[in-house]
From TrEMBL:
Phylogenetic classification of the source organism: Eukaryota, Metazoa, Chordata, Craniata, Vertebrata
Protein family according to the UniProt entry: Belongs to the PIH1 family.
Gene that encodes the chain: Pih1d3
One of the protein's GO biological processes: axonemal dynein complex assembly
Record GO cellular component, one term: cytoplasm
Protein name: PIHD3 protein
Pfam families: PIH1_CS (PF18201)
Single GO term (MF): dynein intermediate chain binding
All residue ranges annotated as the PIH1D1/2/3 CS-like domain in the record: 32-127
Length: 137
């Protein structure tokens, strides 16, 4: 029998805890807002008509993720947004969203804009995959 941890009183390893669980708050009564995840892909005529690149219409070939979050009766100043490599954490006085993203993202270079007339926060994040420099040259 091998003990993974040096401290024998530890009941789990850090690998056993799901990524982003430190953001979970089961006692928080705020409701989750409606949201939509969209994928953006840069294509040109050589991709669409001639199929010259290795791109296809799947999400695996998309360069950006766009998350649209409905926040009715919310001001821009009330929004707290935290982006990690695989986690989007949004908090307002009435709403809370902890979203595990489908791909790793570049958390330092995202864009967010609040569309007040639509009461929607639009977050655009660049997908950060390990081998994109090979797949999309």
């Amino acid at each position: 029998l091998q003990v993974k941890s040096e401290n024998r009183k530890t009941i789990w390893d850090t690998e056993d805890v799901p990524e982003g669980s430190e953001f979970d708050d089961t006692w928080d009564p705020r409701e989750q807002p409606e949201y939509q995840i969209l994928f953006k892909q840069c294509v040109g005529t050589e991709d669409v008509f001639f199929g010259m690149s290795r791109k296809d219409p799947s999400t695996a070939c998309c360069e950006e993720i766009v998350i649209k979050i409905k926040l009715p009766e919310t001001r821009c100043s009330d929004i707290t947004l935290d982006i990690q490599d695989k986690i989007l954490d949004l908090r307002t006085p009435k709403k809370k969203l902890l979203l595990h993203l489908p791909y790793h993202v570049d958390s330092k270079n995202g864009k967010a804009r609040f569309l007040s007339e639509e009461e929607t926060l639009e977050v655009t994040l660049k997908v950060s995959r390990q081998f994109d420099f090979i797949n999309f040259v």
